[in-house]
Amino acid sequence: MRPGGRRAVNVVMSGLAAVAAGLVVLPLLLIFGFLLWQGASAVNVDFFTHLPKPVGEVGGGMANAIVGSLVLIALAAALGLPLGILGGVYLAESRDRHLPWLARFLADVLNGVPSIVIGIFAYTVMVLPMRRFSALAGAFALAVIMLPIVMRTSEELVRLVPASLREAALALGIPEWKVLLRVVLPAARAGIVTGAMVAIARVAGETAPLLFTAFGNRFWHQGLDQPIAALPLQIFAYAIAPYDDWHRQAWAGALVLIGLVFMVSLAARVATSGRFTGVR
Amino acid sequence: MADGILVKGLNAWFGEHHVLHDIGISMAPKAVTALIGPSGCGKSTFIRCLNRMHEVIPGARVAGTVRVEGVDVYAQGVDPVQIRRKIGMVFQKPNPFPTMSVFENAVAGLRLSGVRERAVLNEAGERALRQAALWDEVKDSLSKSGVSLSGGQQQRLCIARALAVEPEVLLMDEPCSALDPIATAKIEELILELRSTLTIVIVTHNMQQAARVSEATGFFLLGDLVEVGVTRQLFTNPRDKRTEDYITGRFG
Q: Per the CB < 8 Å rule, is B85 touching A172?
């Protein structure tokens, strides 16, 4: 090919790749812009500090839902992250031929189960025996959704840690469990945190599994065994209501939800960014 | 015979693949033994059998007797972790821990086996880095990342890391094959210094290197130990035709 032709092809392909990259981020920018346009006017101090007003009264906020979402996410993470990360380590480290294969396959299936079905599952095993909707049941449903995501990303990241590091540590006379805990996992830390964040972001916006587990609550929650408000539920309820003020608050709620996920991700990044990172 | 390394009837497999056949060799204490041979001849597998690192690979198996400094390495009830503490190992590619600083790398073996006292760690870290001829180059950047060093420095850091736990034996698996000639010269100098205190076994593709640093040399071919002897003699007057062919470059 002539030099000119080669350069032209290079320019065209680089351009196409740049356009593709732009198109990928475009939806996020559009969503964010639209939310700002529609919801920013309803985000004020009251929104963060007040309970919802009774039907017909203008004003009020979603303070209970913001707190509720944070509680649900924290509980779900406390349940789902350790289990998922340990499961991922098992998948990556096990020498067994059949069990990891089965677990991996089932995790992928679980990942594909519609979230409403997981809600029904949580309803059956948590809500029915306890005879009430509760924050625990909601968090349980979210944790089940997180599990396969955290497990598979942790597995991939642990696998990415070079075998040479593991060998170096073993050859120093360090027991295998300590090699895993002090050498392999730290090297995979940044990537595992990313996986955890993806899982948290995913469940932060889940509505369906909370419908008949956490149920929602127009007041501050009364304990973990009681129904609890959550931003997605509140957004859902307000968006289908016939009041303009509620619509505005639903937009604001969506904006706050995105902001929340953003800040949780950022905080986790900052908190876990050590001096030297390993595999990303 | 309590000192040095004594191997009898050593066989090793990867799955069904029989990679070492009935190896028998004795290596003198506080001396350097070099192992040469073409790629895939089993020399790396052989030294990994000495500190029980072969069995780390799934499907790998060992049979035979290995005595290192008087300890029966494959005796019933012997903990591989204890064996590996006494036998340091340096690998082909420098592999410092990326999440640790230069100093943390040097004392990693001690810290991860439970040594906490700051003074002990400082002392051991400096001693190991000095022994590895790295101290003067890194003493002002001990808290920098271990992987920020140059390739040659990283390899000496790995040697320091192995020395910090005060092993009796040091196994080196082609320690210079990823390094330039200057870094290689430094490592060779280091080997010559260390041999007064340690039993060293070095696997190398570089026959000049074997000639420069070792007292004894073994030649491996296709999983057999063809010949072992005093280095000078093996290179100038080999007993076996295959050794002669290899060192004169006729195959391999």
A: yes
Per-residue pLDDT tens over the stretch B155-179: 999 999 999 999 999 999 999 988 8
Average pLDDT over residues A203-218: 89
Asked if the C-beta of B97 comes within 8 angstroms of chain A's C-beta atoms, the answer is yes
A276 has pLDDT over 70: no
Out of B58, B86, B95, the one facing A165 most closely (by C-beta) is B95
Nearest to B84 among A162, A170, A274 (CB): A170
Give the C-alpha distances (Å, rounded to integers) separating A144 from A43, A120, A137, A156, A198. Answer: 32, 12, 11, 19, 14
What is the C-alpha separation between B170 and B202, in angstroms, rounded? Answer: 8
> What's the first-to-final CA gap in chain A, in angstroms?
38
Q: State yes or no: pLDDT of A280 exceeds 50.
A: no
The nearest CA of chain B is from the CA of A187 a distance in Å of 6
The CA distance from B74 to B53, in Å, is 12
pTM of the predicted model as reported, rounded to 2 decimal places: 0.81
Do A171 and B89 make contact, defined as CB atoms within 8 angstroms? yes
Q: Is A57 helix (H, G, I), strand (E, B) or coil?
A: coil
Q: What ipTM did this prediction achieve?
A: 0.89
CA distance B120 to chain A (A): 18
Q: What is the mean pLDDT of residues B61-69?
A: 92
Secondary structure string (H, E, C) spanning chain B:
CCCCEEEEEEEEEECCEEEEEEEEEEECCCCEEEEECCCCCCHHHHHHHHCCCHHHCCCEEEEEEEEECCEECCCCCCCHHHHHHHEEEECCCCCCCCCCEHHHHHCHHHHCCCCCCHHHHHHHHHHHHHHCCCHHHHCCCCCCEHHHCCHHHHHHHHHHHHHHCCCCEEEEECCCCCCCHHHHHHHHHHHHHHCCCCEEEEECCCHHHHHHHCCEEEEEECCEEEEEEEHHHHHHCCCCHHHHHHHCCCCC
Q: Is B91 on the interface with A (CB under 8 A)?
A: yes
Residues in A closer than 8 angstroms to B141, CB to CB, are none
